[in-house]
Amino acid sequence: MPSKTAFITGASSGIGQAAAHQFAAGGFDLIISARRKSRVAELACLLEEQYQIKVLALELDVRDRSAVASTIAALPKRWQGIDVLVNNAGLSRGLVTFDEGLISDWDEMIDTNVKGLLYVSRAITPLMIKNGAGHVINVGSIAGHEVYLNGAVYCASKHAVDAITKGMRIDLCQHGIKVSTVDPGLVNTEFSKVRFHGDQQRADSTYNGMTPLAAEDVASTILWMAQAPAHVNIAEVLLLPTDQAAATVVKRNDK
């Protein structure tokens, strides 16, 4: 039986990189993409050697509509049979009140989290329809379920992911394509460092006194969703650390 193929965006670090390892261990061949070409190229070599699979590494900024379209259109025929798309590329910028928000931060979040997801999905789902099957798994957030202080635009972008996921599921059902979302709470990745524009100390304080999820926790959930039987679609998973009950309700040990 030929190997299945998964396409993972934002694979250079965090959840995307962990998902690449999980899917590789599960026997998938991989297309991995990110803006940092050297990172995904290095990861591709590691995965091929460690798991004895085939990996195609792509330099891709999901915000660039023409680049997304041309890159996916140029995929060699061998790589057009994409079984699973993991829309992982995403970020948050800033945590300030709306009136103090930087429009450049807003643009970056909307262009990546919403428009980038749309560009990639729009390019890949026709291939899935042609192949007669497929599974799109979007990485959302608890921020797509709740709005919290100082997070208006990031939360809006993840609410959009939730709505797009539901709409895609409806539209693509007739083609036998599954559409799912996994929505994590606090995960200790580069997320907070990016949100706080490189301020590592502030990023680390996000997780003080509690045990957050690890990237591997989210990645293993994504793989579990992808490996469900053909007649089963795990449509939505809200994944929280035990120390977190809601977006801003976190049990912390102050000792």
Provide a descriptive summary of the structure in words.
The protein has helices at 14-25, 37-51, 65-73, 103-131, 152-172, 191-195, 200-205, 215-226, and strands spanning 5-8, 29-34, 55-59, 84-87, 134-139, 177-184, 236-239, 244-246, 249-250. With 255 residues, the chain is of the alpha/beta class. It has one domain: 3-Layer(aba) Sandwich (Rossmann fold). The strands form two sheets. It has a seven-stranded parallel beta sheet with strand order 3-2-1-4-5-6-7, sandwiched between helices. The chain has a two-stranded antiparallel ribbon with strand order 8-9. Strand 4 (84-87), helix 4 and strand 5 form a beta-alpha-beta unit. Helix 3 (65-73) packs parallel to helix 4 and helix 4 runs parallel beside helix 5. The longest helix is centred in the middle third of the chain and has 29 residues, at 103-131.
Main sheet characteristics: 7 strands, parallel
Can you tell me the CATH superfamily? NAD(P)-binding Rossmann-like Domain
In helices, the fraction of residues equals 40-55%
With helices defined by DSSP (H or I, 4 residues minimum), what is the helix count? Answer: 8
> What is the strand tally?
9
Please tell me the total number of domains. Answer: 1
* Unreliably modeled segments: none
Per CATH, the architecture is 3-Layer(aba) Sandwich
Taking strands numbered 1, 2, ... along the chain, how are they ordered across the largest sheet? 3-2-1-4-5-6-7
Gyration radius, in Å: 18 Å
